[in-house]
Design a protein that fits this description.
This protein is mainly alpha-helical and 245 residues long. It contains six helices and five strands, in the order βββααααββαα.
């Protein structure tokens, strides 16, 4: 630490050896005073040292601020040269930061729109697959015709995401899940069963009383409950009724 040259010291040992000659011992109190011939010079020296220390401190502060721009004065100069070149290259003689920001925002939005469109397409494909696969399975169970029924089922079914899973649900005209009258939501199978029971869509399902067992449709048998179908059968039945048979 630099010596401050105090006017009076209690112990001469605290004074650097090369400066001790500037101090004179005082009788009676054992203290040391700086020699009067050097007092003015020392005072000026101390002031000069204080000023130099302040200047040095200010220089370090400014240097620290400039150092943030580069590791050396050359690096700082090079950086300012790059910035000046960018400004010069601008059409208006200054960097058009607003235009640069607008261009960046437009590019970012375009990328987001492309990702959103891709995600929507993938979701639509997934929805169609879930609806068609479940509807086709149910139509087969209830002996319906997929070609006729699928378009009408698709228009009444939507896919919802619940707890990370995608579930197909029947919806009403407002797009809300439709109830089944039993306290729950209508399933695709319940919708197809409803269509089978209706007069309009019932024709798209296989008839429940279709003849079987190889019995011809125009012959009497189990399929017609023994009732006469052809004119000959009706005449025979009438004659039999008159004869009491």
């Amino acid at each position: 630490m630099p010596f401050e040259f105090p006017v009076e010291v209690d112990n001469i040992e605290t004074v650097p050896e090369n400066f001790r000659g500037l101090y004179v011992a005082q009788e009676g109190n054992g203290k040391f005073l700086i020699h009067s011939d050097f007092k003015g010079h020392v005072s000026g020296l101390v002031s000069a040292l204080d000023k130099e220390r302040k200047t040095n401190k200010d220089s370090k502060t400014k240097l620290a601020a400039w150092t943030a721009l580069g590791e050396s004065p050359e690096a700082v100069t090079a950086r300012f040269g790059e910035m000046e070149a960018q400004v010069t290259a601008s059409k208006e003689g200054k960097a058009n930061w607003d235009k640069m920001k607008t261009d960046l925002d437009a590019g970012y939005k375009k990328q987001l729109d492309a990702e959103a469109a891709k995600s929507l397409s993938m979701r639509k494909s997934l929805e169609n697959y879930l609806i068609d696969s479940e509807a086709t399975k149910v139509i087969a169970e209830l002996k319906g015709t997929p070609l006729l029924l699928l378009p009408h089922i698709r228009s009444q079914v939507r896919v919802f995401e619940e707890n990370g899973e995608f579930i197909a649900k029947v919806v009403d005209k407002e797009g809300d899940p439709r109830g089944n009258g039993k306290g729950g939501f209508m399933t695709v199978k319940e919708l197809v069963a409803e269509m089978k029971a209706s007069e309009g869509f019932g024709r798209a399902f296989e008839a429940a009383n279709k003849s079987g067992g190889g019995t011809p449709p125009n012959k009497q048998g189990g399929g017609n409950n023994g009732q006469p179908k052809t004119p000959t059968q009706k005449i025979a039945a009438g004659l039999a009724a008159k004869s009491g048979r």
